[in-house]
Structures are given as C-alpha cells and as structure tokens.
Amino acid sequence: MIAGGVIGPLKQREVLIAGRYRGSELVQVGRTVPLSPEQSAALGAVLRKAKRDHPWPDEIGTGRWGGKSGKVALTKVDPVEVVEVSADAALQAGQWRHPLRMVRIRAEMQPEDVATLPDPAVDA
C-alpha cells in the first residue's frame, strides 16, 4: 500500500491511512490499527508533508468507513512511501472492511510497484 496520510500530527503519527492508485487518482483503501511506538518512529523517519495538490480531504471520518460519526484532522503525506500491511480478505467497494496492520516499510519499492485498483466503469 501507499502511505497517503496519517491521523495525528506528522511528528506523532497514530494511524496510517493507506491508498492505491486508480488511474492517476490516489484512493483511500484502508487504515491501520493504532501504530506501535516503533512503527510510528519508523514512519516518522521517511514520511514528508504533502504538497498542496494532494487529493485527499483535510479531515477524515473517525469511523471504520470514514463516515459521518465524527471527523479528525488528516495529515496528508507525500505519497511516495510503500508499506507492507496485513489485511483480511474482506473488501467492500475497494476498501478493506477491517483495519490493516502495518508490517514494515518497503524502501525498495516505489508507488508504481503497487497494483492499481480496477476502473469501476470497466468492471460494470
């Protein structure tokens, strides 16, 4: 997955928001369980604040689906870091139904190495 944002300030990351590309659009596909202090520190060493053209909103829902239950600030990061995650197989509308677990940063990979999401118009 591509690291696209975090919940919490960039210096104190709490949850990673993962994305994948659909064409040229970076789409949110899941969020991790709370990061361990070690994972947060490792991400802090590589994540950089996003440029102004980052496609995601400034706030994200607090619920599992990012719904209307409440909002928290989303710290958008430059989507250049790839992370390995552990996830179950349950997907809905291209998003994981259950929280992801961050395994490690994949420094040897680039965002273009991550499989893209299918175009829903083609699958229809």
Spell out the blueprint of helices and strands:
Layout lengths: L1 E6 L7 E8 L2 E7 L5 H10 L12 E3 L9 E6 L6 E4 L4 E2 L2 E2 L4 E5 L14 H4 L1
Keywords:
single chain, 124 residues, mainly beta, OB fold (Dihydrolipoamide Acetyltransferase, E2P), five-stranded antiparallel β-sheet, two-stranded antiparallel ribbon, 2 helices, 9 strands, DNA ligase (ATP), NA-bd_OB-fold
Distance between the termini: 25 Å
Helix and strand run? EEEHEEEEEEH
Radius of gyration: 14 Å
Largest sheet: 5 strands, antiparallel
User: Quick one: how many beta strands?
Assistant: 9
CATH class: Mainly Beta
The appropriate CATH architecture is Beta Barrel
CATH superfamily: Nucleic acid-binding proteins
What's the total helix number? 2
Mean residue pLDDT: 88
- Total separate domains: 1
Which shape, going by the Cα principal axes?
globular
Model description:
The chain is mostly beta strands and 124 residues long. The protein has one domain (2-117): Beta Barrel (OB fold (Dihydrolipoamide Acetyltransferase, E2P)). Helices cover 11% and strands 35% of the residues. It has two helices and nine strands; from the N terminus they run βββαββββββα. The chain has helices at 37-46, 120-123; strands at residues 2-7, 15-22, 25-31, 59-61, 71-76, 83-86, 91-92, 95-96, 101-105. Strands 3-2-1-5-4 form a five-stranded antiparallel β-sheet, with no helix packed on it. Strands 6-9 form a two-stranded antiparallel sheet. A two-stranded antiparallel ribbon has the order 7-8. A hairpin with a 2-residue loop joins strand 7 and strand 8 (95-96). The radius of gyration is 14 Å and the shape is globular. The protein starts with a strand and ends with a helix. The relative contact order is 0.26. The model has no long low-confidence stretch (mean pLDDT 88).
